[in-house]
Specification:
18 strands; hydrolase; four-stranded antiparallel sheet; serine-type endopeptidase activity; serine protease; alpha/beta; Peptidase_S8_Ser-AS; seven-stranded parallel sheet
């Protein structure tokens, strides 16, 4: 079982000479009896939430963010800790543990540490025949990137994208020549099917090579990299999404992009609803840091079919929150571009699995997304990808096509706030925008012909 704990430093007694890690360990030991399956006599593993870089480097990142974005309220990441101990608890036990921890005055926030990746709904199409004609999301019913390719930089040249998730088949026949690098974290087996279909599909949408094999990615000219959410820690393997987001942020330049292929559950039992990861405090603060550094963050709205304007109940939080409803008293804006999904045919309709609401900025196809994949034998195959997992890379492609065209014309790349406004200008609406509530699909042709670039 793994949890993340943020200390409320104003709640600590001045006379307490223990280290912050020791305080966290004591708090968890006091709350741990609620987790009946945990080994009581096992030593807790308590460490800073962000360990991939030094505290000095982390402070420097925060200082850069403050200098770059005057609206950024800096986070002291040294107050965040990750806690791992032997034994697995039921969802109810973990919820109780989080509730007890959240009740301590010394605790500012607590959450489950590990998240969930977005599963792919796939129709496998093996073989290596050219599949470009099946990639409708590149054309007029999609983001119209085929039109943008006719302009300098429209292929994403001069930009960099990082996919943040669990695992990939980087040696896929339609990706291998892109030399996509794992920059941080681990490349592990994806939980869906025991192979790498999810990450491989995401990369394929953006980066498949124009090599007369398979399909063509949205960004033939962009640099692509990956950061894994799994990490080695003291001989074990853990999943740390906030650290992965911070890693991607420090490895990108202002105007570049990361796509967060992840979602998370809430505290509803027995079947949690699915939400974007920014409902969790640690992930929110990591995303906010990235945005303040000038990085465009694209975040799936998640596949819960939920109205995100409704209150949500998080694990260990007794009060329902409206973090995702614009105008609500407790609304908070990470600055990420949140992406919903729609049907592929015109007129587009919100896909039944897509979350929706005022926080969703843009949408794209959530079905029939032809892209690269891999089967259990690690063979090169192609698949029809789906969900907000599939929609997010398409919008990411539109973002970096825009940045590439601006750069090719000697113009400054857009900030996250500027991009979030521009990406939907002249965009395609769904059949029923008021009820669908997933924003607009980017239309690169409209942006180009309208003189916005």
């Amino acid at each position: 079982t793994s949890v993340a704990v943020k200390l409320n430093t104003t709640g600590l007694r001045a006379r307490d000479v223990r280290s912050r890690a020791e305080i966290v360990e004591d708090l968890v030991r006091r709350a741990q009896p609620s987790l009946k399956h945990a080994k009581r006599d096992a030593g807790l593993n308590v460490s800073p939430l962000i360990t991939s870089i030094s505290s000095e480097e982390l402070d420097e990142l925060v200082q850069r963010a403050v200098a770059n974005d005057p609206t950024y309220i800096p986070t002291d990441f040294k107050t965040w800790f990750q806690v791992h101990f032997e034994g697995d608890g039921t969802k109810g036990e973990v919820n109780e543990l989080l509730g007890k921890l959240g009740g301590f005055e010394e605790v500012a926030s607590v959450q489950p540490l590990a998240g969930t990746t977005l599963p792919a709904t796939t129709t496998v199409k093996p073989g290596s025949d050219p599949l470009f004609k099946q990639q409708g999301y590149l054309g007029e019913s999609g983001i119209n990137v085929k039109y943008a390719w006719g302009f300098p930089g429209g292929d994403g040249k001069g930009t960099h994208v990082i996919d943040v998730e669990r695992g990939w088949q980087l040696e896929h026949e339609d990706l291998v020549s892109r030399n996509i690098s794992l920059l941080a974290g681990l490349n592990v087996l994806d939980r869906y099917g025991g192979n790498y279909p999810h990450g491989t599909a995401v990369l394929g949408e953006m980066l498949m090579v124009n090599n007369k094999i398979g399909g063509v990615g949205i960004l033939p000219g962009a640099k692509g990299s990956v950061v894994g959410t799994h990490r080695d820690l003291n001989g074990g393997r853990i999943e740390n999404q906030p650290e992965a987001i911070v890693d991607a942020a420090r490895l990108l330049k202002p105007g570049d992009a990361m796509v967060l292929e992840m979602q998370t559950g809430d505290g509803v039992e027995p079947d949690p609803n699915l939400w974007p990861v920014e409902i969790l405090d640690a992930e929110f603060e990591a995303i906010r840091l990235a945005v303040a550094l000038g990085i465009i963050v694209i975040e799936p709205a998640a596949n819960g079919g939920m109205d995100m304007d409704e209150p949500l109940k998080r694990y260990g939080d007794p009060t329902p929150r409206t973090f995702l409803k614009k105008g609500a008293p407790d609304f908070r804006d990470s600055g990420a571009i949140v992406v919903g999904s729609a049907t592929s045919s015109l007129p587009h309709k919100r896909h039944s699995t897509s979350n929706y609401g005022s926080r969703v900025d843009a949408f794209s196809w959530g079905e029939n997304i032809l892209t690269s994949s891999v089967n259990a034998a690690y063979e090169n195959i192609y698949t029809n990808f789906s969900g907000t997992s599939g929609a997010a890379p398409i919008v990411t492609g539109a973002v970096l096509s825009i940045q590439g065209m601006l750069g090719a014309n000697g113009r400054k790349k857009l900030t996250p706030a500027e991009m979030r406004k521009l990406i939907v200008v002249g965009g395609t609406a769904t059949a029923n925008p008021k009820s669908d509530k997933i924003g607009l699909q980017p239309n690169l042709k409209a942006l180009i012909d309208g003189g916005y670039l």
